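We emphasize that the prediction below concerns an isolated chain of 150 residues; any contacts that depend on oligomerization or on bound cofactors are therefore not represented. The input was used exactly as deposited, without trimming of termini.
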Amino acid sequence: MDNMFTNLPHFLLGFGLLLLIIEVVMGFTTILLLTLGISLLLTSGLMYVGVIDEAMLDALIAIAVLDAVLTFALWRPLKLLQRDRAPKEVKSDWIGTQFDLDSDVAPGQPGTARFSGVAWTIKSSSSLPKGATVEVVKVEVGVLHVQPSH
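Result of the prediction step, given as a token string:
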């Protein structure tokens, strides 16, 4: 343990791993910890093989350059990973349920129906008269999309 704090490559390796573990636990929410952790690991490795001298100034310069290059290279791919995605279709037990309409429904003129003590808005892409038997094809919050039952 004492060697880790007196040997710069060991310290950089340990600190780099710690930053990467924190980044993984946080779910890759920030690019800084990821690139800095990778930069520390790369600098440590370059010191082990003798490419970089085991001096603090050389380490800081290498870390800064590697971090800048990694940040520039990984910014766009990581930004795309964090992009909001459209919500997935809701899977509901209501889909396929058939019932009779309580009111006329037309495109742009939704109707209402009561099911299980809830007043639902009924929408359809075609005109449907009151009393028509319909089938639920899609469910949204408070809205049932229906089509004529076959």
